Every structure is written in C-alpha cells, then in structure tokens.
C-alpha cells in the first residue's frame, strides 16, 4: 500500500502524483498541513517536514529523488529511466530540483502570481505561509522577480528547442527528466493561471505540458493521518537490502545519527543508523504513535552527523 503525504498545491508532490499516473498506480492520499507544525507527519519522519513523503507500512521515504527510485522498484514498467539514459535522467532531475524549481517558483510568485495564488486565503493564512517559507529559506529572499522573469524565458527557450525535436525531453518516452521539469510549470498553469500567457511563445512546451497532464495521477483514495500512523504502528519495516556499507563519515552502523536536508527545511530526524549504501541512508526510530519505523533519505542534498 503506497501512502503519499502531501497537499494539493505542492509542485514537488505533483512530480510524484504524475509519476503515479504514468505508472498507473493506486495509492492512498494523506493531506498534510502546508506549514509547520505537522505533528502527524513528523511522528513518522522524526523531524523532516518537506512535502511530499512516501510511506509504505513502517518505511518512510523522504525527498522525491528517493521516492522516484522507490516507485521505480515498486513497478518497473513503464520506466522513469529509459534504457541507456538513466544517468541523464538523474542529472537533469537534479538540475531541475536545484536550479529550475527556484527560478520558476520566483517567477510564479512575482506580484501578480502571488496575488492570484493567495486570493482564496485569509490574511492570516497568507502571512503564516510567507513566514514559514521565509524561515525555510533561512531568511533569504526569493530570486528578484525581474531576474526570475528573464531566467525563465531563457530556460523555456531551451526547453522549446528540445521539445520541437522530440515529444519528451530525452526522446520518445517520458522519463524522470520530464516529471522533474513539469511540476513547476504545472504549478504555474494550475495555481497561478493568471501568468499562463507567459508560456504562449513556446507552443512546443505547451503541447508537451498537455502530454504530461494526460498521464493523470493514478487512482487515489483519501486516508486520515491517524490511520496512516496506525498503519505504521501495525507494520514492520521491510528487510534492509544486504550489501555494501559505504562509510564516508566514520560512523558505524548502529550509531545514533541526525540527518537533515542541506538547505530549505533543515529540521533533523534522529535515530539509529541501520543502513548506509552509496546513495541512501536509513535510520530506525521509535515513536509512541508510529511505532518502530525506518526513515530513508537520499545522500545527495542531505547532511548526516553523530547525534
Ligand atoms: N528536494 C525536495 C524538495 C521538496 C520541497 O521543497 N517541497 C516543498 C513543497 S513543493 C516543501 O517542502 N515546502 C514546505 C512544506 O511543505 O513544508 C524533494 O525533492 O522532495
């Protein structure tokens, strides 16, 4: 049973929802708060607060880079990593997370977009959201709107150059590259529609967005956060893959460690390090409501220290 903890407006959650659609998967949907505190989510993760989080029983997966790998293992076809292009798919995805998303996010939150996005919210909700995200950015401002507008145009032009030649970014089939670049544009189209005409100069991009949207979001049914906690408490973490232990920190398995994102939402999760391969870290922790859970992190973008 796949359980996605997310909220509808989240672009990174849309990356995963679209992959669930592409793979035609059924899943359970837990609505989480957009801002801290998120007590039911952090009971599972131990501190990690970003959106989305994937839960499979008593296993909790943080960060979409890792969630995509887990979904690929769960259902291999259709693949996110077309044969021979796995490296490119991952490299493009990381570019999208680190560089494309911040540009498009600043683009979407230029004054007209922000006014559109916040129009349904009370002044209090808007203030809470802005303060929460500013704290996540460590007090740093977003990229200024003028820079974002210019950067978005340059990047859209480049995407159009690719998409005028082929239906998807790496060729004939969708790959992780498409899902990673799609979600900030999904946000623009669906959450700040007033800015949509900004995409009109690039019809190849618009056609690709339609193709991506047509993949859907799979079959989902709602699940309460209490039920998700009960599911964790009544499940056992899956057996850990035997194999390599990659020690870059001088921290043996069994150490008490703290793992946090490098930036943007750096709340740490603390527990016992039970697996550390080249690309993933897993800690075991106990929670009064969630029971014993394994919390999985990718290494890229995360920092581990002795707790
Ligand atoms: N690298 C992370 C980024 C996730 C991310 O930044 N998500 C945003 C929502 S789209 C977030 O966590 N916002 C704050 C929150 O939801 O608490 C991933 O790939 O999962």
Question: What are the main properties of this structure?
Answer:
binds glutathione, Glutaredoxin, Glutathione S-transferase Yfyf (Class Pi), Chain A, domain 2, 307 residues, 2 domains, alpha/beta, ten-stranded mixed β-sheet, globular, 10 helices
Total DSSP E strands: 10
* CATH overall fold name of the largest domain: Glutaredoxin
Q: Can you tell me the number of structural domains?
A: 2
CATH C-level class of the largest domain: Alpha Beta
What is the name of the CATH architecture of the largest domain? 3-Layer(aba) Sandwich
Cα distance spanning the termini: 32 Å
> What are the low-pLDDT stretches, counting only 5+ consecutive residues below 50?
none
Structural class: alpha/beta
Strand order of the largest sheet: 5-2-1-3-4-9-8-7-6-10
Biggest sheet architecture: 10 strands, mixed
For the CA atoms, what is the radius of gyration? 19 Å
Bound molecules: glutathione
Strand content range: 15-25%
Shape: globular
Can you offer a commentary on this structure?
With 307 residues, this protein is α/β, with parallel strands linked by helices. The protein has two domains: 162 residues, Glutaredoxin (3-Layer(aba) Sandwich), CATH 3.40.30; 128 residues, Glutathione S-transferase Yfyf (Class Pi), Chain A, domain 2, CATH 1.20.1050. It is 42% helix and 19% strand. The chain is built from ten helices and ten strands. The protein has a ten-stranded mixed beta sheet, sandwiched between helices. The longest helix has 23 residues. The mean pLDDT is 97. The site of glutathione has 14 residues, from helix 1 and helix 3.
């Amino acid at each position: 049973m796949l359980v996605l903890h997310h909220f509808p407006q989240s672009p990174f959650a849309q990356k995963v929802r679209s992959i669930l659609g592409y793979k035609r998967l059924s899943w359970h949907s837990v609505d989480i708060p957009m801002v801290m505190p998120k007590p039911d989510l952090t009971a599972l993760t131990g501190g990690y607060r970003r959106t989305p989080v994937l839960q499979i029983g008593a296993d909790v997966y943080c960060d979409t880079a890792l969630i995509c790998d887990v979904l690929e293992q769960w259902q291999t076809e259709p693949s996110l990593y077309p044969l021979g292009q796995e490296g490119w798919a991952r490299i493009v995805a990381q570019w999208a997370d680190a560089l494309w998303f911040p540009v498009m996010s600043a683009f979407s939150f230029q004054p007209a977009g922000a006014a559109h996005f916040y129009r349904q919210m009370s002044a209090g909700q808007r203030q809470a959201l802005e303060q929460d995200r500013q704290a996540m950015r460590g007090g740093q401002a977003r990229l200024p709107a003028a820079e974002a507008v210019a950067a978005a145009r340059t990047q859209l032009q480049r995407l159009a150059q690719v998409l005028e030649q082929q239906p998807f970014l790496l060729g004939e089939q969708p790959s992780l590259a498409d899902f990673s670049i799609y979600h900030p544009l999904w946000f623009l189209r669906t959450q700040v529609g007033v800015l949509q005409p900004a995409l009109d100069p690039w019809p190849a991009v618009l056609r690709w967005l339609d193709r991506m949207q047509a993949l859907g979001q799979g079959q989902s049914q709602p699940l309460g956060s209490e039920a998700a906690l009960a599911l964790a408490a009544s499940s056992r973490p899956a057996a850990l893959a035997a194999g390599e232990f990659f020690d870059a920190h001088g921290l043996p398995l069994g150490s008490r460690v703290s793992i946090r994102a490098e930036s943007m939402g750096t709340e740490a999760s603390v527990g016992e390090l039970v697996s550390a391969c080249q690309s993933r870290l897993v800690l075991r922790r106990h929670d009064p409501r969630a029971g014993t859970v394994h919390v999985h992190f990718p290494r890229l973008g995360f920092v581990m220290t002795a707790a």
